[in-house]
Automatic annotation (TrEMBL):
This is Transcriptional regulator, LysR family. Belongs to the LysR transcriptional regulatory family. Residues 2-59 form the HTH lysR-type domain. The keyword Calcium does not apply. One of its GO terms (molecular function) is DNA-binding transcription factor activity. The keyword DNA-binding applies. GO terms for biological process: DNA-templated transcription.
């Protein structure tokens, strides 16, 4: 039987996307984690991770095994939740508003896992980019991109993503590579945003931060469509590094103006202060924060 502790450490390495980060998050020596994962691989008789001096990725069997490890983790949390909520069962309707640009497949996976843990919850999930009023429209939680305007709402940071500018080699061959932020004014841009979003990108950080204009070619609220249009040579786009990691690795997309690193954008779970922190809201935000990172780790490390 595989060592349960080794399985949990393996899952932690996948979620952290590396042994060093996992060691920092767990508070355990990197050498110990590496040894435990190696012992697990020896027990199973398979290679779960491909390692070299710079990269770490999941093998095909490693990706499948990680899903089972995550399921076991879910069961452990479900057992804990059963004990913790004996006198306060988590139940009722939970209405959630989520931006259209989120991966609907990923959200579906997260909701399935959440409903398995909390079977007495009823979910009402709506994908919308409207600025929903939580109280007036009856939503319990809205997932929102920051920065947020101050209000009587409470915001919990769920995760951060690093934005980068990308283009296809084909586009750059025809139109040239911008050397300065100001050069973007002569280039076509694929804008990820709503009908109110202006063709402006924030480049740089702190005192070096500057707002630059570009020639908007397409504006759409789907990151998948933006990435495809960029790969089809229609312009430059700003996307998160996690969205286009595989394309950058393969060379089908190229990073632009890397000497102008941008501030990470933040995603929050927002709820009304009038509701305080109801149990069903709390458990959903906890689950979303952890599982969103898990699922993205699996996708980004798949070979």
């Amino acid at each position: 039987m595989p060592d349960l502790n080794g399985m949990m450490l393996f899952a932690a390495v996948v979620r952290a996307k590396g042994f060093s980060q996992a060691a920092r998050e767990i508070g355990m020596p990197k050498s110990t984690i590496s040894r435990k994962v190696a012992q697990l691989e020896e027990q199973l008789g398979v290679r779960l991770l491909q390692r070299d001096t710079r990269n770490l990725s999941l093998t095909q069997v490693g990706a499948l095994f990680f899903q089972h490890c995550s399921s076991i983790s879910d069961e452990i949390e479900a057992a804990k939740a059963t004990v913790e909520n004996t006198h306060n069962d988590v139940s009722g309707l939970l209405r959630i508003a989520i931006p259209v640009s989120f991966s609907q497949e990923l959200i579906a996976t997260l909701c399935s896992g959440f409903l398995r843990l909390y079977p007495n919850i009823e979910l009402d999930v709506q994908f919308t980019d409207s600025d929903v009023g939580l109280v007036g429209e009856g939503y319990d939680i809205a997932i929102k991109y920051g920065p947020l305007q101050s209000s009587d709402l409470v915001a919990r940071l769920l995760f951060e993503r690093q934005p980068i500018l990308v283009a296809s080699p084909g586009y750059l061959k025809i139109h040239g590579t911008p050397a300065t932020p100001q050069d973007l004014a002569e280039h076509s841009g694929i804008l990820l945003g709503t009908s109110r979003s202006a063709p402006i990108w924030p480049l740089g950080k702190g005192a070096r931060k500057t707002m630059v204009n570009f020639q908007r070619k397409v504006r759409v609220n789907s990151a998948v469509m933006v990435k495809q249009l960029v790969m089809d040579d229609f312009g430059i786009a700003m996307l998160s590094n996690s969205v286009c990691k595989n394309e950058l690795a393969s060379g089908s997309l190229v990073p632009i103006l890397q000497e102008w690193p941008m501030e990470a954008f933040k995603v929050y779970g927002v709820y009304s202060s009038r509701r305080q922190l109801a149990t069903n809201i709390s458990v959903f935000l906890d689950f979303f924060h952890k599982r969103f990172t898990n699922q993205e780790s699996l996708q980004s490390m798949m070979m």
